[in-house]
């Protein structure tokens, strides 16, 4: 028996004898197993959870008959059960596996559960490990036990590795090369916001002669700083136009009053007005048409980020539509997404109206905005490739089983 198998056997023996391993209740009532293909997805961490829910949503859109059960940090849609996993005691894990009998396991997290994953594997599930975003795969075990991480990873039919280094390391640890896939990061890039082609062509024609930047999902407390930044940027590019989109339509009147107090020449788009050569700000009522404005503007500041409390807005909806990104320091809800984009050169942080004005003046130049937008598109595309690969793998196996 190989050393990696021995390490897992030692762990399973420990799990059979221990009454309090891992986390979760010792026993609970699991969701009733309905007939049909069932996917069990587990996510660890906010970004992995969003990516997993997005992946399952895409599967459900194409295969409505597929059933789902989610666990961990994933927040499922109302019609999808969420379960609290048992601890690592073998009997509890086996009860969970027999109750769910998943056809597929999608594991999106670095912390592995050897007893649980072994029990699910024994039911015949197709096991897929997705790239962890919060560190390398590991098994939290007592120091006196041999490390079962490699043997636990060997339980998976497919392991999507985040890098060539990880793939080489797993091969050295004895994981079968045929089970390893070199993949991009596992992240929720979302579905690009929609916009009718005819509307885009019309608005692009109206604004064709103007350099444009966008402030999207703006809070009232941010509006004055954004307008002051625009006033400074206009000194260097006097024809520069700001498209200002509130985070909520209820904030429209408040932000309109702020633009008036700042003495900005404003076009109220949803009132039927069109910008002329003297317009400084095009004020939109709400975020419903952001798919249009991200396509129009080569550069966007993403609101909810200059002041504490909101946590920022999703940067991938801008990056997916080819927009360079500026953002404030308060993006805790989407920190890992912004970090990826910054590392790729697709986003830049600003601290206040002065730094925002400087960044706008520099990046609104077509070559600068295009370079950042291209970098953002590369990030979004890398995540989409992994999602597409997993969906194709699942559908191929479903079709193969149905053909038997």
UniProtKB/TrEMBL annotation:
<dbReference type="InterPro" id="IPR039901">
    <property type="entry name" value="Kdotransferase"/>
</dbReference>
<dbReference type="InterPro" id="IPR038107">
    <property type="entry name" value="Glycos_transf_N_sf"/>
</dbReference>
<keyword id="KW-0472">Membrane</keyword>
<protein>
    <recommendedName>
        <fullName>3-deoxy-D-manno-octulosonic acid transferase</fullName>
        <ecNumber>2.4.99.12</ecNumber>
    </recommendedName>
</protein>
<feature type="domain" description="3-deoxy-D-manno-octulosonic-acid transferase N-terminal">
    <location>
        <begin position="36"/>
        <end position="184"/>
    </location>
</feature>
<comment type="similarity">
    <text>Belongs to the glycosyltransferase group 1 family.</text>
</comment>
<comment type="pathway">
    <text>Bacterial outer membrane biogenesis; LPS core biosynthesis.</text>
</comment>
<comment type="function">
    <text>Involved in lipopolysaccharide (LPS) biosynthesis. Catalyzes the transfer of 3-deoxy-D-manno-octulosonate (Kdo) residue(s) from CMP-Kdo to lipid IV(A), the tetraacyldisaccharide-1,4'-bisphosphate precursor of lipid A.</text>
</comment>
<keyword id="KW-0448">Lipopolysaccharide biosynthesis</keyword>
<keyword id="KW-1003">Cell membrane</keyword>
<dbReference type="Pfam" id="PF04413">
    <property type="entry name" value="Glycos_transf_N"/>
</dbReference>
<dbReference type="InterPro" id="IPR007507">
    <property type="entry name" value="Glycos_transf_N"/>
</dbReference>
<keyword id="KW-0808">Transferase</keyword>
């Amino acid at each position: 028996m190989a050393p990696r198998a021995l390490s897992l056997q030692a762990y399973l023996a420990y799990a059979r004898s221990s009454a309090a391993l891992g986390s979760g209740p010792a026993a609970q009532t699991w969701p009733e197993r309905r007939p049909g293909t069932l996917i069990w997805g587990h996510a660890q961490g906010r970004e992995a959870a969003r990516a997993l829910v997005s992946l399952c949503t895409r599967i459900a859109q194409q295969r409505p008959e597929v059933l789902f059960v989610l666990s961990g940090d994933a927040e499922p849609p109302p019609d999808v059960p969420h379960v609290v996993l048992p601890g690592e005691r073998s009997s509890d894990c086996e009860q969970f596996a027999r109750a769910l009998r998943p056809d597929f396991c999608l594991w999106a997290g670095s912390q592995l559960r050897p007893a649980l994953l072994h029990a699910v594997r024994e039911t015949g599930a197709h096991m897929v490990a997705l790239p962890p975003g919060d560190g390398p795969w590991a098994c939290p075990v007592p120091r006196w036990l041999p490390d079962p991480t490699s043997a636990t990873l060997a339980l998976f039919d497919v392991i999507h590795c985040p890098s060539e280094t990880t793939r080489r390391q797993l091969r050295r640890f004895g994981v079968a090369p045929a089970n390893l896939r070199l993949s991009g990061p596992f992240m929720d890039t979302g579905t690009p916001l929609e916009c009718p082609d005819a509307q885009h062509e019309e608005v692009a024609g109206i604004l064709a002669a103007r350099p444009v930047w966008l402030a999207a999902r703006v809070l009232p407390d941010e509006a004055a700083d954004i307008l002051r930044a625009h006033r400074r940027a206009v000194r260097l590019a006097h024809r520069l136009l700001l498209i200002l989109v509130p985070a909520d339509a209820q904030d429209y009147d408040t932000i309109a009053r702020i633009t008036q107090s700042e003495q900005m020449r404003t076009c109220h788009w949803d009132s039927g007005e069109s910008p002329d050569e003297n317009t400084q700000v095009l004020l939109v009522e709400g975020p419903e048409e952001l798919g249009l404005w991200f396509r129009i503007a080569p550069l966007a500041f993403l609101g909810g980020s200059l002041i504490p409390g909101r946590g920022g807005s999703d940067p991938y909806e801008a990056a997916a539509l080819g927009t360079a990104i500026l953002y404030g320091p308060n993006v805790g809800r989407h920190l890992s997404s912004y970090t990826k984009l910054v590392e790729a050169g697709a986003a830049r942080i600003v601290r206040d109206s002065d730094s925002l004005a400087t960044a706008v003046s520099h990046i609104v130049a077509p070559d600068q905005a295009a370079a950042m937008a291209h970098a953002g598109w590369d990030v979004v595309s890398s995540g989409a490739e992994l999602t597409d690969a997993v969906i194709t793998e699942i559908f191929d196996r479903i079709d193969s089983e149905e053909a038997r």
